[in-house]
Amino acid sequence: MQTKLYKIPVSFSDILNNKGISTINIRNSIEQNIQLLITTVNGECKFDKLYGCKWWENDFNLKQTILEIKEQLEESVRHSLEIYEKRLNNAVITATILQPEVNQPGKIKVELNISGIITSNNQFLKCRYVFLISPFCQY
């Protein structure tokens, strides 16, 4: 029996109108879990206080260099994936610090590329996420 993978956010109006819950494939499920992991602060999930990305504890650390931000972000995401996304093997995480737009003073633009092999079907997966940090703001 194949496990059903559900799309988030759940559409409660579809449920109330007897349309059921939208399902997704393994690739999309992994991508949405990674996005949730990297945008969740440790302690934010009430069912698992360790779920999320530890890096956000350093979000307002103004003494960090760009290289330190990059390395800490990559290591934090790698650690979270090892624990919470076991459907992805040989994950490679690359963070690139970009120059934000002029109208975003005090923010750092990050491009996060994650690739690996999906365990269940041996397919290659590559995801790209772009967001602003200090303070965090999804881009």
From TrEMBL:
SUPFAM superfamilies: gpW/gp25-like (SSF160719). The lineage of its organism: Bacteria, Pseudomonadati, Bacteroidota, Chitinophagia, Chitinophagales. Residues 27-113 form the IraD/Gp25-like domain. Pfam families: GPW_gp25. Gene3D superfamilies: 3.10.450.40. It comes from Chitinophaga silvatica. InterPro entries: IraD/Gp25-like (IPR007048). This is IraD/Gp25-like domain-containing protein.
